[in-house]
Design goal:
It is a single chain. The chain has 319 residues and is mainly α. The chain has one domain: Rhodopsin 7-helix transmembrane proteins (Rhopdopsin 7-helix transmembrane proteins, Up-down Bundle), CATH 1.20.1070.10. The protein is built from twelve helices and three strands; from the N terminus they run αβααβαααβαααααα. The N terminus is likely disordered. Belongs to the G-protein coupled receptor 1 family. It is a multi-pass membrane protein.
């Protein structure tokens, strides 16, 4: 049975180049990106956890986002670095299943969380008097939990529908991680109704989230335009516009990658597209959401000062 043959042997992921020097270059580039994402997201997570002033709904969602981003980039990038350095592009069947499941879980959770975040900003800017009631701790916890559970549901749905297909012939996946479009390409089943239905469902929800986010932001923009001071306006815009930009990159590249007809397979374009929805958001989110944020900068300064002073004080306290 050819399907069982794949079960035991696994797949081959695509390398970025056959030239050893370029592989090293790719590994170094990915390592750099990974470290930036890792440090940025860990820093946000730590600062929000430690600083009491940042225990608000907005930062609660931001902390969740950092954790999701950390997970999202850790599923694909380290494996790709290891493959480049070891000259070995294989991934086990179980490894491939778990990569696809986790990838979907974190990407879908992130989309739902970003929708919740846009609603949070909408309430904060457009209905400030009702903010305490509409965004209390319990509601925020429920929204975050719903994001995670929905992500898990989609992860399971995509994994089950994709891996029940038979795989025979070529085991080479034209992608640096296991994703649905590239697995469909190497499946020997021409009809994959279950996957198509799942994809349509996912696509519909993606569009629904995009509409919700657009509505939230259009209300925010119209409210912001009524702010009399230029400073107030620019402050509100500077927080909203970058969010919107990264979000659009994340959603549009994901949709294009999944809706592109499999025959028109240009591996370079596929790789670039997938970079935009798997690697760019986790790396850019910390920069966009936090490093330009006054409260986060203050928290960072506090943390550095605390570390510095505790080092200074300890020897004096214990001569």
């Amino acid at each position: 049975n050819m399907a069982n043959f794949t079960m035991t042997t696994g797949f081959l992921l695509m390398g970025f180049s056959d030239i050893w020097e370029l592989q090293i270059l790719h590994a170094m580039f990915f390592l750099l990106i990974y470290l930036v994402a890792l440090i940025g997201n860990l820093l946000i997570f730590t600062l929000i956890s430690l600083d009491r002033k940042l225990h608000t709904p907005m930062y609660f969602f931001l902390k969740n986002l950092s954790f999701l981003d950390l997970c999202l980039i850790s599923i694909t990038v380290p494996k790709s670095i290891a493959n480049s350095l070891s000259h070995n592009c294989s991934i086990s069947f179980l490894g491939c299943v778990s990569q696809l499941f986790l990838m979907m879980l974190f990407a879908a959770s992130e989309l739902f969380l970003l929708t919740a975040m846009s609603y949070d900003r909408y309430v904060a800017i457009c209905l400030p008097l009702h903010y305490e009631v509409l965004m209390n701790g319990e509601i925020c916890m429920k929204m975050a939990a719903a994001s995670w559970l929905s992500g898990g549901f989609f992860g399971a749905l995509y994994s089950v529908t994709t891996f029940t297909l038979p795989f025979c012939g070529s085991k080479e996946i034209h992608q640096f991680f296991c994703d649905v479009p590239s697995l469909l390409r190497i499946s020997c089943s021409h009809s994959h109704l279950a996957v198509d239905v799942t994809m349509t469902f996912g696509f519909g929800l993606g569009i629904f989230c995009s509409i919700c986010i657009t509505v939230s932001y259009s209300h925010i923009v119209s409210t912001v335009l009524k702010i009399p001071t230029t400073e107030g306006r620019s402050k509100a815009f500077s927080t909203c516009l970058p969010h919107l930009f990264i979000l659009m990159v994340f959603i549009t590249t994901g949709i294009i990658a999944y809706l592109k007809p499999p025959q028109e397979s240009d591996s370079v374009i596929d790789l670039l597209l997938s970079l935009f929805y798997t690697v760019v958001p986790p790396t850019m989110n910390p920069i966009i959401y936090s490093l330009r944020n006054k409260d986060m900068k203050a928290a960072l300064r506090k943390l550095i000062a605390w570390k510095y002073f505790s080092k200074e004080l300890i020897p004096k306290a214990f001569p």
